[in-house]
Structure formats: structure tokens, C-alpha cells
Write a sequence for this structure.
């Protein structure tokens, strides 16, 4: 049987989804489990969009319901302590405006003790370079869900290198479509398809 929260999101019933989330929060359910349900629903919405059973309106509504859920659940995730484990610069790359996954990565990094500068969506190589100069990050995280994002990532990595800003830093890329092949193409140091991988890579690089 489909989980009622997933069903409510697939039915585009935001009120019902929020009611279920509040009920689960009151029952002390694991906040990450609630977010996972939201993620699963969005994956299905993406598949239905690909099959042309859903359209842009459903992508927009599904994305908004997920954001509303994340706004309720995120404050419940606990932070690990005050001392910064390292500085991470995060942004969604040029031509791509998907940010729900990036925002979760930022949240998980922050609650794992990292100091994060999030520069937002549709960010060019110049935007990243400017932020690197200001923030001096140990790790740079590039997010993107579209296939065209791979080209933007490749360009950003090349420009960071050209500007002499890569030494002493690590670059990670992420999004649901990342794999080893894309990682090599882009020239990053590591990749991840979920927020915990971003935390794991950052821990290895900053603590190791
Ligand atoms: C919601 C959504 C939208 C929303 C985005 C809202 C928002 N604020 O983000 C809106 C409606 C704006 C949208 C627009 C479009 N979308 Co859209 N969208 C989706 C959908 C359904 C869900 C994405 C999502 O947020 N998932 C929930 C999050 C929490 O999960 P996640 O992204 O996997 O996040 C994890 C990982 O990505 C990873 N991660 C993310 N960043 C990073 C970074 C690092 C460093 C690491 C390590 C990990 C990491 O960790 C995250 C948390 O665990 C996907 C389907 C899918 N399967 O992904 C399509 C999808 C990504 N969209 C798609 C398309 C085609 C579009 C449009 C072109 C549609 C159109 N015709 O206009 C536009 C493009 C706009 C643009 N220029 O960017 C396609 C992409 C196809 C492709 N190969 O390029 C998909 C795959 C749908 C499909 N199956 O066809 N979309």
C-alpha cells in the first residue's frame, strides 16, 4: 500500500500532506523518514513527467509541497555543536534552478557542524570564483539535476583551476543523476546522489 504522505503528494493535496506531516511530527517520527517520503514522491512525479502523464504544473506543485514539508521538518534536525568542522561553499550551477536537493545538502552539512555559504541557483563560474575569494572554502559543492548542468559544472571546475583557486580545496558534485562517469567528465574530486554523501565526503576531506 502506498504511504499516505506519498499518496497525498502525488494527489497534489498539499493540505492533506501537511496534516499528515504535523501528525507524524507530533508522534515523534524520525524527521529524516518524513523527508525520505517526500523525496520518494518527487522521484515518482519525475518519472510520471517523463512519461508525459504529469506536466510542469505537477513538478511545480510537487516541489512546493516538498518545500513546505522541509520547512516544518528541518528545524527538528539536531546540530552537532558549535565548533566549525570546515567551510563549504554550495550552489546550483548555471542554467539549473533546482534547489530542493541542494537545500537539504546545506541543512545536513550545517547540522553536521560545517560552516556553509549557499550562493543559490543558476550560478556561473564567475559567481563561484567571487565566493571562493570571499569565503575561502575547504570544499566546493556544485549541485545540478539537469543534464545541461554537467557542462556548467565542467566549465566551473575548469575556471576555478584557471584562476589558481583549486589548490588546497576539494570539489564535490551532486544531484540525482551523478555517477562516476560524470565525475570524471567534470573533473571533480568526488560525487554524491544524496545529502549524507556530501557530509561523508566533507568529513573525509576536512578531518582526514
Ligand atoms: C521538483 C522538480 C522541479 C521543480 C524544482 C523546484 C525547486 N525549487 O527545486 C521545477 C518545477 C522548478 C522544475 C523545473 C524543471 N525541471 Co525538474 N524536476 C523536479 C523533480 C520532480 C524533483 C527534484 C527534487 O527536488 N527532488 C527532491 C530532492 C530532495 O531530491 P534530489 O534532487 O535527489 O536531492 C538529493 C541529491 O540530488 C543530492 N544532491 C543535490 N545536490 C548535491 C550536491 C552535492 C555536492 C552532493 C554530494 C549531493 C547533492 O542530495 C540531495 C538530498 O538528498 C525532478 C525529478 C527527479 N527524479 O529528480 C525533475 C527533473 C530534475 N526536472 C526535469 C526537467 C526536464 C525540468 C525542466 C526542464 C522542465 C521544463 N520543461 O521546464 C525545468 C528546468 C528548470 C531549470 N532551468 O532548472 C528533469 C531533468 C531531465 C534531465 N535529464 O535534464 C527531471 C529529472 C524530471 C524528469 N524525469 O524528466 N523541476
Amino acid at each position: 500500500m502506498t504511504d499516505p504522505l506519498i499518496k497525498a503528494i502525488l494527489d497534489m493535496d498539499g493540505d492533506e500532506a501537511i496534516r499528515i506531516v504535523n501528525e507524524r511530527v507530533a508522534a515523534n517520527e524520525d524527521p529524516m523518514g518524513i523527508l525520505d517520503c517526500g523525496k520518494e514522491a518527487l522521484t515518482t512525479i519525475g518519472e510520471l513527467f517523463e512519461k508525459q502523464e504529469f506536466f510542469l504544473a505537477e513538478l511545480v506543485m510537487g516541489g512546493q509541497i516538498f518545500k513546505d514539508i522541509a520547512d516544518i521538518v528541518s528545524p527538528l534536525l539536531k546540530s552537532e555543536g558549535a565548533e566549525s568542522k570546515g567551510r563549504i561553499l554550495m550552489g546550483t550551477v548555471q542554467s539549473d534552478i533546482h534547489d530542493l536537493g541542494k537545500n537539504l545538502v546545506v541543512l545536513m552539512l550545517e547540522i553536521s557542524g560545517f560552516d556553509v555559504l549557499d550562493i543559490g541557483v543558476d550560478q556561473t563560474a564567475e559567481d563561484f570564483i567571487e565566493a571562493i575569494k570571499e569565503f575561502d572554502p575547504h570544499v566546493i559543492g556544485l549541485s545540478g539535476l539537469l543534464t545541461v548542468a554537467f557542462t556548467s559544472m565542467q566549465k566551473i571546475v575548469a575556471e576555478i583551476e584557471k584562476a589558481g583557486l583549486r589548490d588546497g580545496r576539494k570539489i564535490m558534485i551532486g544531484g540525482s543523476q551523478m555517477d562516476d562517469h560524470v565525475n570524471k567528465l567534470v573533473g571533480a574530486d568526488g560525487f554524491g546522489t544524496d545529502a549524507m554523501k556530501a557530509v561523508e565526503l566533507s568529513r573525509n576531506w576536512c578531518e582526514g
